[in-house]
Known about the structure:
Helices cover 69% and strands 11% of the residues. The protein has helices at residues 4-26, 28-46, 87-91, 93-103, 109-138, 141-148, 152-181, 183-197, 201-204; strands spanning 50-56, 59-64, 67-70, 77-80, 84-86. It has a three-stranded antiparallel beta sheet with strand order 1-2-5. It has a two-stranded antiparallel ribbon with strand order 3-4. Helix 1 crosses helix 4 and helix 4 runs antiparallel to helix 5 (109-138).
Amino acid sequence: MRNTLIGRFLLLSILWLALLLPLWYWAARWLAMPVIWLAGTVMQALFPWVDGWAQEGVSAVLHTLVQVRMPGAQGDVLGELAPEASYPTYGYGLVLLWAMLLASRTERWWLKGLIGSLLLIPAQAWGICFQWLRDVVLMSGTYGAAYLKWSPLAQNAVAYGYQFGFLMLTPVAPILLWLLFNKRFVAALWLEAALEAKPDPRAQAPTRSVE
């Protein structure tokens, strides 16, 4: 059977994902704690307009001093902006890493899974921080822009940081960790792929015509 190792790995990865996703979603409230703590601590240390942060279920709420116009019963009023970010949006790489480790039968998979889980926390916190920044800097309206007075260059940096965290860092970080933890298995995958791509010399041998 062609691509046996690759096919088995992909199939087992999908099966482990299906088994681990419900468990990860159930535990997301607790798994989010260190990520939200790191994101909130970094934001509060870097920006004076951050008033605090809080965890509400699997959501991270940033309390700011940035004034924005909000609709009210007596007309529009000014209020402090409090953007939210969802941990599952940036935390699914955790279950992806564990599924790949189990599917490839990684040696000491439990230890590498724990190490990888810790290494993923900064990547997940990056995504939450930049979603907060995007909402504050780019979506707070004229009042927020007047309060912050950020330059267009800084606004573009926030936009690129958010896109990098959402589109690249979140899905790619667990794959890179898995590659780092499974050099032998990856080498075996490359060898199998190379052998499958190599043409069969018997199939290319010319056939003699029978007169």
